[in-house]
Every structure is written in structure tokens, then in C-alpha cells.
Amino acid sequence: MTNTHSYPIGQAGQKWQDAEKAQWLAVQNVKRSYADDVLSQVDVLANHFDIEQYASLNYASGTFPLFTLKSLNWDKSKPNVLITGGVHGYETSGVFGALRFAATAAQDYQDKFNFLIVPCVSPWAYETINRWNPEAIDPNRSFYANSPAQESAALMQLVADVEFLMHIDLHETTDTDNSEFRPALGARDAVEHKEWAIPDGFYTVGDTLKPSPELQKAIIESVEKVTHIAPADESGRLIGEVLQQKGVINYATKELGLCAGVTDAKFVSTTEVYPDSPKVSAENCIQAQVAAITGALNFVYKN
């Protein structure tokens, strides 16, 4: 369906220039604290992981240190697993799902895998509850060479020399995708904006080139014990994409510059939680992210 929301910045048919981007940035404000909410939890995990600062984001509004949690006594004989959250900072359960897994279930798998966990790729966007970074760039469309997004470039550099067996990237699909973020995208790029029906429930996104349907099925079955799975819309799609199996669609991750394509891992999945559903709570959303990770790990370990 066509967008019914006009956007207050820019002129129809004209892409944003620096003036419009500055106007957009001027109306963003801090709503929560990366240091208080995220870094405080990272610090508590110092006895279970090597905590390493892998980069800093430097913006006019301030500097944000980026941290990763790395398995203690990294063992080259074990397969490596990458877990990322907060690529879109407003997608809250991705951040806290990664942290919750690190604080709880990760200990059950440390003898089987090496973990590299990046709980919050985009801390400025976390604080301002945004999809974009301060330069009006979407980090989750910017994982490619010479990336214009500091967040994406930093993560790419972090993982460049590491071979991963699995990567799971934790996301959400929210009502604000239609009410704010897609209208802003249409205005920024001067393109016609199409709304999509927001799926009511959890779903995953596989990689078109390596869809791993059995992995996605294992994730769905694990999450289904915690929360409900999104049904397809009346056209058999989720967010405009053809349903591949229950709760699963596929994207061309590398072509689109998505975080899920940042490595050459054999097993790849992007989770999508729906936090605006009346059937869930913030805690339930976090549990769903953890269930997705453990479901994926159990599958990979057995296969």
C-alpha cells in the first residue's frame, strides 16, 4: 500500500542534501543512556569474557566506544560464532538479547564454540532510538567496501580476519518502520514509499545465496516455545518478501549491504522480533532472541 504519512523534512521529488540532513539531526534527542543501559551490563561480564574495545565512533555530539565480548581462552580448534545486536539502535531486544545470552546461556556452549558477541553496533542510534546514524545513513545497508557508516566499517574491520561458522544478527520489526523510518527513507532518497503490513510475531531472514532452511526451521521451533511466529499476509508474504517456510523469508544480504553478509559464515540468520504486539512484553522479546541463538547453536552443533 502507498504511504499515507507525509514527512516534514525536504521537498517532494528532491533528495536530501546537507541542509536537510542537518535539519533531521537537529530534531533528534537522547532518550536513554548507552553507558547506563549497555556498558554497565558489559562490565559485569568481565569474568566470563574478554572485553575488548574494537573502535570508537566520533560524532559532533560525542564519542561512543564500541565493545565486543570474546570467549576466554579462544581455542583455534573450535568453530567461531558471531552474534551481533543493535545494528539498528532502536531495535532494543537485539541489544539485550545478545547481552542476556552472554550472561546466561553462553556458558552452556563455551566448550563447543568460540563466541564473538557485539551487543550494540550503533550506540548513538540506541540512545536516540533511531534506525540511522547521525549522518542519516542506515548502517544495515552499509556493509560494503569503503562504507560511509562508521558503525559498519568498524564491525567489518573487527571480523575481517576471523573465519566464522555461524553469524546470527538480532533485529526487530516495529510499527515505527511504517510511521517514521520508511517515510523518512522515502523523503531522504526522493522515492515512492510503499508501506508493508507489519508482521505480528517473530520471523527470520535467511541469505538468498545460502538460505539454510533447516537452520531457520530450528530457530523458528526454538522461538515458538517462547513466543508466537508471524503468519504470512494475505499475499503469502512477510514485509513484501515471499514466505519460504513458516516464519522465514530470504534477502540477498551481501548485495544489500546487510550486517548478515559481513562474514562468509556457512550458517547465517537475521532474527526479527515484533515488540509492538499486544501478545508480548519487553522481557518476552529478549527471551525470543536468546531462544533464536540457542536454537541455531543446537542445530549447528548437531550438524
From TrEMBL:
Return the InterPro entries for the record: AstE_AspA_cat, Peptidase_M14
Required co-factor(s) are: Zn(2+)
Q: What does the record give as the active site?
A: E255
Q: Recorded GO terms, molecular function?
A: hydrolase activity, acting on ester bonds; metallocarboxypeptidase activity; zinc ion binding
What processes does the entry annotate via GO biological process terms?
A: proteolysis
Q: Does the keyword Hydrolase apply?
A: yes
User: What domain of life does the native source organism fall in?
Assistant: Bacteria
The name of this protein is Peptidase M14 domain-containing protein
- What is the originating organism of this protein? Paraglaciecola arctica BSs20135
